[in-house]
Amino acid sequence: MFDYSKCAIINLQIKIQTQMNSIFVEISALLAIAVAISFVVRLLKQPLIVAYIIAGIVCGPFVLNLLHGGGEMYDSFAEFGVVLLLFIIGLNLNFTRLKSIGKVSFITGIGQVVFTGVVGTVILLAAKFHLVSAAYLAVAITFSSTIIIMKLLTDKHDSDTIYGRYTIGLMLVQDIIALTLIVALGVLKQAHAANASIIIIVLLKFIMAAAILSFVSKYILPKVLDKIADSSELLFLFALAWCFGAASFLYLLGFSLEIGAVMAGVALSASPYQLEIGSRVKPLRDFFLIVFFIVLGSELGIASIGAVIAPAFALSVFILIGNPVILYFLFRAFRFTRRNSFLAGLTAAQVSEFGFVLLYAGRQFGHLQGEEVAIFTGVAIITIFASSYLITYNERIYRFLLPFFRLFGPDKHRQIERMPKHYEAWIVGYHRIGVKVAETLSLRSARFAVVDFDPKAVAQLRRAKIPFYFGDVADIEFLECLTIAQTKTIVMTIPAVDDQINLIQFARRRNKKVLIICNAYHREDAETLYAEGADFVMMPHFLGGQWISKVLSNRRFNKKSLAEMRREQADLICG
Predict the structure, then answer these.
(1) Distance between CA 253 and CA 528 in Å, rounded?
(2) Same domain, 188 and 319
């Protein structure tokens, strides 16, 4: 007898397999196109976000139409990208930095957001936009891109200048405002009825969730992280589980996934493992964000360009001119020099990935139905492209405009650039040799920091109150978070030759003068390290052999002298 149910299951399996194969081919094609466009964009010295958006336009329905196979899956990928982006932003929220730059960044940040939001709304209302659409789009363009600004400032070595520090502070204020808006939207989504009791319940649920996450982050997470941090794979897996778990917890309470992602990141922001967690999660975030921006770019099809080009161009001109002007006057009000005020304003003349997130949330909540995302995509392409050159050549632009500034007389304000807080030396590996090196540097009152990937070493460093960073020097993302290449001396006591080579290459590309001392147990390894650029390679067994040879050659070598050396050795071991 023919089994129809079994036949139906087989047909379903074949259909699913065919669909999965189709999606796999689609994603392969998307990535191939993104890579090809990225090469061109990179030659133009542009951020790769531009390439992803252009790739989305090319892959969209009005050019190659490659996104028809897995609409829901692409939306899920985009959601993953947003969640991981917000998780890492929460992870990097540095309230200590914000406190150190005082009220200047706070007031300039608030002032710029209010000015851009209000004027942007007026421009869009004049262009016959609906009030809700105009407000969403105007708020979306108020935020500048933290990722792009941080990268370009770092490339120019300007992140520790006066204008660099306060621009980064400004970005932090903008991030906090954006996160607050996203949280507020999530709360409003749940409390959709204009009922005071419902709003109170929503707020109580949010406070309860925040209290639970705060308790877990303070009393449970540190103990768990100390146990698992010695395994990079387990640390990565735990970070993802924590991020998605916290986001799902808030989602089950009725809030958005974005709120949970931010709170999950903030919960880990004070952890000594924060840098390592961030560096491990970033590659996965980048993959999902690539898909996110490709999907967004696909919404700016050739057919829709006619409808969005005018408002996108008008908003782009407003951002490229309005943001620098308002920030210039705000910083001048705080007695900043013309140069620092101009450079800070010019740096913020682009839109942020947060604008995409805000519009994405607005569309999910049912507030937006029109061309807002397409318009913002056009604004992003124009402003990010233009501002990359503005930031790269900001000093030349200022010197070009200097005769105009001098028409207003001499600059009455003066500021002294603070020297960057770099360490004189870095020790990589805080066991055996590293401990003794740290003791010697402490006796010399040298400013130094330690990098280690062992939770036990971290505990010792914490007790000794020695500045330290938990992370793996094999990870370039982690190294880029440090100022290790700008130091005078790097002492590596770790045994892994490949890890030492990675750090040598990283440091040498950025600082030819840094003194690098390495560690090796075999002659071949020492020769390899010297070939890579090490200034000196310690060989513990060789040094030990030399030392015992000198002891044996001493005429007073006897039981008494050995007993004395044994006591000295015990004192050294016991510390």
Answers:
(1) 57
(2) yes
Whether residue 473 contacts residue 451, with contact meaning beta carbons closer than 8 Å, is answered with yes
Residues 362, 508, single domain; the answer is: no
Examine the domain organization and report whether 53 and 163 are in the same domain: yes
pLDDT band at residue 192, thresholds of 50, 70 and 90?
low
Find the radius of gyration of the CA atoms of the chain.
28
Q: What is the pLDDT of residue 16?
A: 46
First-to-final CA distance of the chain: 84
* Residues 441 and 380 both lie in one domain: no
Domain boundary among 374, 394, 414: 394
pLDDT tens digits, residue range 84-130?
Answer: 888 887 887 666 655 665 678 888 888 888 999 899 899 889 888 88
Statement to judge: residues 387 and 528 lie in one domain: no
Q: b/e for 41-79, b at 16 or more Cβ within 10 A?
A: beeeebbbbbbbbbbbbbbbeeeeebbebbeeebeebbb
Domain CATH code at residue 492? 3.40.50.720
Q: Give the pairing of strands 425-428 and 489-492.
A: parallel
At residue 557, what is the residue type? F
Give bridge partners of residue 469 from the DSSP assignment: 451
Tell me the angle at which helices 232-252 and 274-298 cross, rounded to the nearest 10 degrees.
60
Distance CA 63, CA 40 (A): 19
Strand partners for 191: none
Q: Is the pLDDT of residue 458 over 60?
A: yes
Residue 355: pLDDT band with limits 50, 70, 90: confident
Is residue 380 domain-shared with residue 456, that is, in the same domain? no
Tokens of residue 497, six digits: 């030759």
Q: Which CATH number goes with the domain that contains 160?
A: 1.20.1530.20
pLDDT in tens, 396-431: 888 888 888 888 888 777 765 554 567 999 999 998
Establish if 557 belongs to a structural domain. no
**Residue 419 in domain:** no
Quick one: 358 and 478 in the same domain? no
Q: Cα–Cα distance between 147 and 384 in angstroms, integer? A: 11
CB atoms within 10 A of CB 573: 7
Determine the length of the chain.
575
Instruction: Please indicate, yes or no, if residue 560 is contained in any of the structural domains.
Output: no
455 contacts 229 by C-beta, under 8 angstroms: yes
pLDDT digits (tens, 9 = 90+) for 248-283: 988 888 777 877 888 888 888 878 888 888 888 888
182 touches 258 (CB < 8 A): yes
Burial group, residue 474, by CB count within 10 angstroms (0-12, 13-18, 19+): middle
**How many structural domains does the chain have?**
2
Residues 159 and 216 in one domain: yes
Residue ranges making up the domain that contains 347:
4-394
26 to 71, 75, 286, 318, 515: CA distances (angstroms): 11, 14, 18, 38, 49
Q: Which residue has the tokens 């490339």?
A: 155
**Residue 563 placed within a domain:** no
